[in-house]
Design brief:
heterodimer; A: mainly beta; six-stranded mixed β-sheet; five-stranded antiparallel β-sheet; 0% helix; globular; B: mainly beta; seven-stranded mixed β-sheet
Chain lengths: 113, 117
């Protein structure tokens, strides 16, 4: 069964600190993995996308890693800001489908001053 | 470039009533998706359209949910009759291609928050 599991469920950090969010998946055959940011009351917005051959991708202060062998990904946020408070959702796509995405439940991050 | 538009933003109804949601995708996007996001969970795909044809509706509760995309542009999602467990955010998304390739990015609207009492 295709599944995406994220940890932790929620996280509180102080402004300026770094944090790392985890994603494990059992999607096969694997096509790509995305990290989305979802602000409260808004739709998800894509941060990064990685295919099988990529093991790291950066977008500003966000750096995603992918280990296709262990089927794990992480999202590292550097020098957090209050605006980073949101849910971060790991999304995996299987090859050959009509762009069908399997969503994780998300990690809810709160950045406090 | 305008994003995906959805309306209404909020809706409160009583169980057994009917409700409809509207979505206008990004101009030129051939593929349109409806998702249900229950509080604390990731979005779940309800239905996917490619132009005005249905590609995937395997998780749509067809006894009460229906969706259409006439003319391959706007789409409506209807629930009739609503149940308490339908309380959720309904997200519409669109992507560019006609082939529905795996790597196409989906652009999400702000969602409609439904509360069924």
């Amino acid at each position: 069964k295709n599944q995406v599991e994220q940890s932790p469920q929620s996280l509180i950090i102080l402004e300026g600190k770094n944090c790392t969010l985890q994603c494990n998946y059992t999607v096969s055959p694997f096509s790509n993995l995305r990290w989305y940011k979802q602000d409260t009351g808004r739709g998800p917005v894509s941060l990064t996308i990685m295919t099988f051959s990529e093991n790291t991708k950066s977008n500003g202060r966000y750096t995603a890693t992918l280990d296709a062998d262990t089927k794990q990904s992480s999202l590292h946020i550097t020098a957090s800001q209050l605006s980073d408070s949101a849910s971060y959702i790991c999304v995996v796509s299987a090859t050959g489908g009509y762009n069908k995405l399997i969503f994780g439940a998300g990690t809810r991050l709160a950045v406090h001053p | 470039e305008a994003g995906v538009a959805q309306s209404p933003r909020y809706k409160i109804i009583e169980k057994r009533q009917s409700v409809a949601f509207w979505c206008n995708p990004i101009s030129g996007h051939a593929t349109l998706y409806w998702y249900q996001q229950i509080l604390g969970q990731g979005p779940k795909l309800l239905i996917q359209f490619q132009n005005n044809g249905v590609v995937d509706d395997s998780q749509l509760p067809k006894d009460r949910f229906s969706a259409e995309r006439l003319k391959g542009v706007d789409s409506t999602l209807k629930i009739q009759p609503a149940k308490l467990e339908d309380s959720a955010v309904y997200l519409c998304a669109s992507s560019l291609g006609t082939s529905g390739r795996d790597q196409e990015t989906q652009y999400f609207g702000p969602g409609t928050r439904l509360l069924v009492l």
